[in-house]
């Protein structure tokens, strides 16, 4: 039998609280109406974040009179948590049906409601005649309010075609899942081709709590994977895609592939990079096929993400007119090195193995410098203040399983071999150890 934590939490106290995190300028009930959510759902979600509930905690609604907002909130909180006494709802899984050779003109022959990333429209003007809704996306607007705006803009019941990077796809596919519409994806960034469009995870950020905290598992009808889009992708976004490509190569345990990817990134040889995409995608597809709803093994795809999500959360709360936010892939590259250094720090991995991997990250040119990272964090990197903010987000991260003050990490004992801690894929690490590893990381950054 699968081990699950049956910690029971009475959450009836949620009922009379009012939301504060959900953009105070927006009208909460208008967001709930657009999403078709019962009134009070956002208040329940807010309380769940404030109580730092995790995805293994069952919600006990036995003393709740109006269960509808709780049930809806439970269905999207951390992509779905279970309610005590209720069987798990059956969820549809389908392998990612990848189409790699179709021309866009053929794709548009089908009747779709087309949502496109506005920057992709600018770069590829032919899309304008096919697009029904254009979205200007950023991590700061990857939120429920934008989901509600998308839903208000939909005029048909046709399936949706979603064209854009990971933000557009995560957000719009989540919107589609909430109104029960099927959708297909056209990833236009390297990161979304190799990772975000595979595996059925959709969702949005909930600040100040963190990244991708509300969402669903919803699998696309088709993913049209056409590498031509990469021709117009800005260099920063190409480099950002490097992080997830390296993550997949590390999980595959193939350091030669890592080296080849690094060479191709350095030369900006995207034709050759494209040839390696199928192997990188297959790694994720195989893991997702074995564990679609992240009950176990799938969590290893979060390698590097405990720190990455914390860097992103701090960057988003520090953002101002003059400051952009760190890109997801930029944070992932740093997070990967942090996890590997943590593996070295607890004696799982030899330093020379780490040095080899680090050299590939350096030669690929996908690592931010300390000066760049400091701008995103808006604090001295070695300061206690920044570390305590990062720690706050890391220990709040969705992957936690016990040990309240510890943060949980996927660690490698060798390329391709995830360390198991008491039979689990996540290893708790203490704040003093994490402080040391953060110092080690800063020492190797240029
Ligand atoms: N669902 C998942 O399993 C999963 C996995 C990994 C990452 N993600 C999410 O993906 C997001 C990051 O995705 P991303 O890196 O694609 O970022 P993104 O969607 O912000 O795209 C990067 C930038 O490139 C622009 N753009 C996209 N395609 C373009 C093109 N062909 N030409 C010119 N400009 C183009 C976009 O407008 C944007 O400015 C994060 O929010 C992350 O959480 C999700
Ligand atoms: Zn990621």
In short:
It contains 17 helices and 14 strands. The protein is α/β, with parallel strands linked by helices and 446 residues long.
Protein model, in words:
With 446 residues, this protein is α/β, with parallel strands linked by helices. It has three domains: 8-76, no CATH class; 98-232, Rossmann fold; 240-444, Up-down Bundle (Dehydroquinate synthase-like, alpha domain). 45% of the residues lie in helices and 12% in strands. The protein is built from 17 helices and 14 strands. It has a four-stranded parallel β-sheet. The protein has a two-stranded parallel sheet with strand order 1-2. A two-stranded parallel ribbon has the order 3-10. Strand 8 and strand 9 (210-217) form a beta hairpin. The longest helix has 21 residues, at 270-290. The chain starts with 7 loop residues before the first strand and ends with a helix. Residues 1-19 have low confidence and may be disordered. Zinc ion (ZN) binds next to helix 13.
Main attributes?
Rossmann fold; binds nicotinamide-adenine-dinucleotide; 3 domains; four-stranded parallel β-sheet; Dehydroquinate synthase-like, alpha domain; alpha/beta; 446 residues; binds zinc ion; two-stranded parallel ribbon; disordered N terminus
Low-pLDDT windows of residues: 1-19
- CATH-wise, what's the superfamily of the largest domain? Dehydroquinate synthase-like - alpha domain
User: What structural category do the secondary elements indicate?
Assistant: alpha/beta
Count of separate DSSP helical elements: 17
Give the radius of gyration: 21 Å
Shape: globular
Largest sheet: 4 strands, parallel
The amount of helix comes to: 40-55%
The count of strands amounts to 14
Annotated CATH architecture of the largest domain: Up-down Bundle
Q: In what range is the share of β-strand residues? A: 5-15%
CATH fold field value of the largest domain: Dehydroquinate synthase-like, alpha domain
Bound molecules: nicotinamide-adenine-dinucleotide, zinc ion
Q: Order of strands side by side in the largest beta sheet?
A: 5-4-6-7
User: Terminal Cα separation, in Å?
Assistant: 48 Å
- Count of distinct structural domains: 3
For the record, the CATH class of the largest domain is Mainly Alpha
User: Mean pLDDT, nearest integer?
Assistant: 89
């Amino acid at each position: 039998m699968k081990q699950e934590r049956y910690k029971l939490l009475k959450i009836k106290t949620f009922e009379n609280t009012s939301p504060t995190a959900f953009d105070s300028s927006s009208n909460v009930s208008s967001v709930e109406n657009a999403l078709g959510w019962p009134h009070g759902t956002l208040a329940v979600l807010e309380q769940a974040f404030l109580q730092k509930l995790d995805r293994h905690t069952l919600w006990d609604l036995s003393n709740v009179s109006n269960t509808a907002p709780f049930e809806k909130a439970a269905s999207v909180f951390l992509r779905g948590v279970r309610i005590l006494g209720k069987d798990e709802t059956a969820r549809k899984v389908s392998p990612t049906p990848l189409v790699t050779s179709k021309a866009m003109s053929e794709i548009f022959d089908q009747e779709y409601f087309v949502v496109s990333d506005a920057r992709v429209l600018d770069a590829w003007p032919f899309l304008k005649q096919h697009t029904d809704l254009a979205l200007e996306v950023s991590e700061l607007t990857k939120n429920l309010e934008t989901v509600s705006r998308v839903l208000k803009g939909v005029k048909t019941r046709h399936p949706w075609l979603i064209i854009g990077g990971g933000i557009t796809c995560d957000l719009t596919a989540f919107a589609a899942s909430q109104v029960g519409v099927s959708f297909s994806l056209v990833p236009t960034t390297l990161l979304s081709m190799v990772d975000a469009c595979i595996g059925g995870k959709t969702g949005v950020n909930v600040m100040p709590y963190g990244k991708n905290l509300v969402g669903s598992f919803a699998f696309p009808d088709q993913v049209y994977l056409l590498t031509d889009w990469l021709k117009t992708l800005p260099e920063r976004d190409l480099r950002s895609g490097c992080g997830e490509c390296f993550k997949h190569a590390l999980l595959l345990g193939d350091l030669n592939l890592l080296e080849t990817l690094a060479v191709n990134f350095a030369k900006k040889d995207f034709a050759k990079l494209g040839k390696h995409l199928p192997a990188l995608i297959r790694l994720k597809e195989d893991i997702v096929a074995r564990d679609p709803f992240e009950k176990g093994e799938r969590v290893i795809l979060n390698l590097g993400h405990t720190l990455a999500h914390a860097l992103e959360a701090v960057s988003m709360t520090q953002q101002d007119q003059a400051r952009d936010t760190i890109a997801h892939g930029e944070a992932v590259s740093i997070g990967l090195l942090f996890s590997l250094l943590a593996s070295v720090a607890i004696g799982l991995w030899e330093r020379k193995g780490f040095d080899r991997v680090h050299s590939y990250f350096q030669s690929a040119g996908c690592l931010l410098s300390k000066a760049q990272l400091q701008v995103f964090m808006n604090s001295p990197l070695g300061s206690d203040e920044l570390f305590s903010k990062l720690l706050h987000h890391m220990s709040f991260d969705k992957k936690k399983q016990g040990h309240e003050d510890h943060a949980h990490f996927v660690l490698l004992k060798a390329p391709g071999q995830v360390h198991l801690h008491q039979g689990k894929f996540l290893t708790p690490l203490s704040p003093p150890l994490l402080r040391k590893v953060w110092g080690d990381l800063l020492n190797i950054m240029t």
